[in-house]
């Protein structure tokens, strides 16, 4: 989804900043419904979040603590084409479970086959991010839900009409009462989908077994060589792809273009220093999420490695760490093998 479009939600004739203010107000109105949260008591609806070794605790809003019934409702919504105006597309159409909740095409089609303009990212571990979308303009998973629902190229619908549609389904009525003690409305739809997404956690790749589970044989010799290259100062990959998610959660220009067709974070901040900057993506499950970059312009990991080796295109905002390097074919294969080791097999 294109957040430019998400601003259009309000009024395409207003400037971006005004629209952001309106959008924020709109989201606030929809999402802050007066509802007293029940204190969490352990019962058979309690959802125990299992975090892999090496993972930090996830911050979960008090107003949307995880329960089994909330996650189950969110999962049903995530897979339901009723969320789109034409009953054609679900969240799972673009965020496919077998592809680490990403897609194999550069631009996934929405309703009536309408093409998007950005590549669908993985939703694994998305509960750790607090600046969503490539330019980082959406702070919570609850708010993000409204974007695909309204987006012309995605569901092309309206959350109020969607709630009316779902109210006619007795299963949703029942699940909603169980999960949030209220009818299925925008409050419930946004929260249940967010709760479900906070359970999409992946942290048992061969790399994890090696790094956090003391299994020195989990990586091949080639992958270990690749890990050393990845962490080296000369390649500098780990300066941006840092930490247990392999992202410093920042926004960087990694030199894809001299002139960016999609201008990136500047659309949110209007700051020229942010032109061509995009969120540093996680590299977890990278073997399943080709094609790569915000526009899916790099078809495979070889193309990504060759991009960084070449130093990329000249752009005034390009990070100085993107300066090119020379690797032998074997070293490139090792680096690729390491990247693949960040992928969980099941
Ligand atoms: C038509 C394809 C499509 C559909 C349908 C769709 N998405 Fe997405 N999703 C995308 C694309 C493309 C992006 C990246 C947009 C960007 O970076 O601006 C994205 C981004 C996201 C993100 C932000 C991830 C991040 O790392 O910042 C979340 C969360 C998300 N989608 C959840 C959902 C949910 C929940 C639904 C259903 C309510 C949904 N998506 C439906 C294509 C889709
Ligand atoms: C200056 C920060 C920076 C450095 C250094 C860096 N990257 Fe990236 N990387 C990014 C950004 C930003 C993106 C996303 C760009 C976009 O969406 O267009 C990205 C994207 C990627 C992707 C595609 C991810 C996806 O889901 O589409 C891969 C793979 C990748 N980088 C690997 C590497 C490797 C390997 C190195 C070292 C050779 C490296 N990166 C060095 C910032 C960096």
Brief descriptors of the model:
single chain; 346 residues; mainly alpha; Cytochrome Bc1 Complex, Chain D, domain 2; 2 domains; two-stranded antiparallel sheet; disordered N terminus; binds heme C
Structure description:
This protein has two domains: 3-197, Cytochrome c-like domain (Cytochrome Bc1 Complex, Chain D, domain 2), CATH 1.10.760; 206-340, Cytochrome Bc1 Complex, Chain D, domain 2 (Orthogonal Bundle), CATH 1.10.760. Helix content is 36%, strand content 1%. It has helices spanning 3-8, 16-31, 68-78, 91-94, 141-144, 146-150, 159-167, 170-180, 186-197, 206-211, 221-231, 237-240, 266-269, 301-310, 329-340, and strands at 251-252, 278-279. The chain has a two-stranded antiparallel sheet with strand order 1-2. Mean pLDDT is 91; it is low at 1-19. Residues 1, 3, 83, 89, 91, 93-95, 108, 110, 116, 118-121, 123, 126, 129, 132-134, 141, 144-145, 148, 154, 193, 197 line the site of one heme C.
